[in-house]
Structures are given as C-alpha cells and as structure tokens.
C-alpha cells in the first residue's frame, strides 16, 4: 500500500540524514544506559537499537562507528557536568578543571570507558579518526578557553597556547591510561603551576 504524505514524512523524520531530536535522544539514552550496565566490552549497536526502538541503519547513518556514538555520549555527559572555570588565574583554573575531569572519568559510565576508547583508537583506523578529528577539536574548546583567557590577560604567551594544551593532555592521559586518577590536589596543583608558569605555593 503506498505511503500517504503524512506517513512518508514521519518515516523521513526518523531515518533521514537530518536527525530527529526525539530519536537521537532515545538512542543516546539507550547507549548511556547500556554502557553503565555492561561497560565498553559489552556495548553493541544491536542492543542500543533494540532498547531505543530505532533501526540500525538510522544509527549507522548518524554515527558511522561505535566510537562515533560513544564520543557523543561522552561529550553530552561531560558538557552537562564540567564547564571551564574562571578563577582569575590559569593555575587555579587548571586545578579546578582537572579535579572535575578526573571525577568525571571515575564516576560516569562514559568517563569510565574513555580509556578503552583511546585503546581502540590505537588499533582501529576508524576509531582513531573519530578520536582525532571529531573528539579532540570539539572537547578541547573549554580547555583552550582557559589558556586563551590567560593569554588575553598577559599571563602566558599566546603563541604557546597550542603547546601548553598538548602538554596538559599528555599529563592527564598518562594518568588515565595508567589508572592514577584518584583525586590528587597537590599533584594536580604542581602540574598546573608548572604549565601556568606560576611560582610554587599553597592553594588559596
């Protein structure tokens, strides 16, 4: 039986290239819940589709790989919890941001599985592209903002922002990949003061 215009419009809203907000929210919620229950190893697009009541073609049209979907879950959770602090000093901005980031990695489903996503990116080209080309440019906006504010205040050289951001990522990912992200205010402060060029001292 031919589809009526209304039926065809509903079908296109759910499976077309343009994302349907309700369907997208259902898929992301299903993915987050599945990640919380089964972790990265037990995560599958088949199960996400079943829980969300969505077709696999729809999911793969919007998220070509599992890594793409997990990155969006991670990004949504992180954006809801962490914002770039503005304390007036770069070292204390970094301190507050890093403590919140490590708590997010320890305490949320997507945060706890981020290490596995990094590991997969070392073995699979699709996951590597998703991490490098999608995740990093988007998720580093808040981090770059802290350094750019410091440069605008004259606290650091604007030409050093890119290098300082990469050094910051290196410190955090070493801690994450070696499972050393328990809250460590003195260790984080030492790193923060070093990157900011601030003299040693106690947190105020």
Commentary on this structure:
The chain is an all-alpha fold and 204 residues long. Helix content is 74%, strand content 0%. The chain folds into two domains: 5-62, Arc Repressor Mutant, subunit A (Orthogonal Bundle); 72-196, Tetracycline Repressor, domain 2. It contains eleven helices and no strands. It is elongated and about 55 Å long.
Q: Give the quaternary arrangement of the chains.
A: single chain
Level of helix content?
over 70%
| Helical segment count | 11
Task: Find the CATH superfamily of the largest domain.
Answer: Tetracycline Repressor, domain 2
| Rough outline | elongated
- Rg for CA atoms: 20 Å
Strand content: under 5%
- Terminal-residue CA separation: 72 Å
Structural class designation: mainly alpha
How many independent structural domains?
2
Topology:
Blueprint lengths: L4 H11 L5 H18 L6 H8 L3 H7 L3 H16 L8 H18 L1 H15 L1 H15 L1 H13 L7 H17 L7 H12 L8
Helix pairs in contact: 2-3, 2-5, 5-7, 5-8, 6-7, 6-9, 6-11, 7-8, 9-10
């Amino acid at each position: 039986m031919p589809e009526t215009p209304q039926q065809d419009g509903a079908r296109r809203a759910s499976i077309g290239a343009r994302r349907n907000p309700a369907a997208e929210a259902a898929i992301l919620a299903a993915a987050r819940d599945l990640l919380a229950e089964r972790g990265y190893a037990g995560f599958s697009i088949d199960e996400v589709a079943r829980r969300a009541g969505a077709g696999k073609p729809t999911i793969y049209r919007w998220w070509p790989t599992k890594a793409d979907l997990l990155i969006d879950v991670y990004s949504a959770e992180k954006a809801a919890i962490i914002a770039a602090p503005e304390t007036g000093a770069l070292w204390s901005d970094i301190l507050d941001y890093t403590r919140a980031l490590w708590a997010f990695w320890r305490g949320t489903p997507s945060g706890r599985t981020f290490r596995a996503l990094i590991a997969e990116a070392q073995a699979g080209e699709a996951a590597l592209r998703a991490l490098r080309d999608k995740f990093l440019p988007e998720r580093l906006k808040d981090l770059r903002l802290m350094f750019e504010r410091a440069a605008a205040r004259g606290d650091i050289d604007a030409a050093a922002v890119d290098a300082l951001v990469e050094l910051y990522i290196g410190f955090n990912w070493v801690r994450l990949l070696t499972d050393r992200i328990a809250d460590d205010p003195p260790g984080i402060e030492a790193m923060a003061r070093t990157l900011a060029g601030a003299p040693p001292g106690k947190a105020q």
